[in-house]
């Protein structure tokens, strides 16, 4: 049966680095279902490594939305390393504000799409953060996803391929808090 819940009726919970062992498989499962056929892509298969990398950061921040006990979406990231603000090379002039939250991953299971769940978990992840900016990467071949981020205030500032085997991504930046 199709879920009839709206995003506002979901239970959104916050998690940190300390919770990683508890939420790791949930994140991997939601991500795999969200990817659909793309999950067989060689780069996408490395996702568990990225979960451990990001979740291993003591400042890791994650929100997971639940429909009852069922996880339906997640969003996570961590503060960017101030000594490694790679996105700055895309900006001329670079903004005076510096502290940046790196928004790493977002996924919504297919049955819960088009209900504002992606916006809900994004806003809950980014609200009350004390960084000045948020940065993310989105596959340049997914313009509709880029448009979604633009609707929340992100703007494309450049393109980047962070790993030799990764897609080319649009680098997107916004000031915090979101409007
Ligand atoms: C991106 C996502 C969180 C958005 O969820 P949502 O707010 O409910 O919105 P939708 O699923 O309707 O997606 C918005 C648009 O992006 C498109 N889109 C979503 N994921 C896509 C993907 N992986 N590749 C290409 N297009 C994608 C949708 O087809 C939709 O296009 P439309 O407006 O023309 O119908 C969800 O689609 C998802 O989990 N996708 C797979 C994982 C992903 O791409 N995460 C973002 C990483 S930057």
Explain how this protein is built.
By secondary structure, this protein is α+β, with helices and mostly antiparallel strands. It has a single domain (7-175), classed as Gcn5-related N-acetyltransferase (GNAT) (Aminopeptidase). 25% of the residues lie in helices and 29% in strands. Strands 1-2-3-4-5-7-6 form a seven-stranded mixed beta sheet, sandwiched between helices. Helix 1 (20-35) runs antiparallel to helix 2 (47-55). The model has no long low-confidence stretch (mean pLDDT 92). Residues 34-35, 106-108, 113-114, 117-118, 138, 142, 144-145, 148 line the site of coenzyme A. Its EC number is 2.3.1.-. This is GNAT family N-acetyltransferase. It comes from Streptomyces scopuliridis. Keywords: Acyltransferase, Transferase.
Write down the overall geometry: globular
Number of helices: 4
Unreliable parts: none
Helix content: 10-25%
**Largest sheet geometry:** 7 strands, mixed
CATH T-level topology: Aminopeptidase
In what order do the strands lie side by side in the largest sheet? Answer: 1-2-3-4-5-7-6
CATH architecture assignment: 3-Layer(aba) Sandwich
Strand % is: 25-35%
Cα gyration radius (Å): 16 Å
CATH class: Alpha Beta
Series of secondary-structure elements, N-terminal to C-terminal = EHHEEEHEHEE
Number of distinct beta strands:
7
Mean pLDDT: 92
Counting helices, strands and paired strands, the structural category is: alpha+beta
Bound molecules: coenzyme A
Our count of domains comes out at: 1
């Amino acid at each position: 049966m199709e879920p009839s819940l709206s995003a506002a009726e979901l239970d959104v919970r916050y998690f940190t680095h300390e919770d990683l062992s508890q939420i790791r498989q949930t994140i991997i499962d939601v991500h795999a279902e969200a990817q659909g056929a793309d999950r067989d892509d060689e780069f996408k298969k490395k996702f568990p490594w990225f979960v451990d990398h990001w979740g291993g950061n003591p400042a890791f921040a994650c929100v997971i939305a639940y429909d009852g006990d069922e996880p339906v979406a997640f969003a996570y990231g961590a503060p960017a390393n101030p000594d490694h603000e790679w996105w700055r090379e895309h900006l001329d002039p670079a903004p005076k504000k510096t502290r940046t939250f790196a928004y790493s991953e977002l996924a919504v299971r297919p049955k819960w799409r088009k209900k504002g769940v992606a916006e809900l978990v994004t806003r809950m992840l980014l609200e009350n953060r004390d960084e000045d900016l948020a940065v993310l990467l989105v596959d340049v071949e997914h313009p509709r996803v880029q448009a979604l981020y633009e609707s929340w205030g992100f703007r494309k500032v450049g393109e980047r391929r962070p790993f030799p085997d990764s897609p080319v991504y649009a680098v997107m930046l916004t000031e915090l808090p979101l409007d």
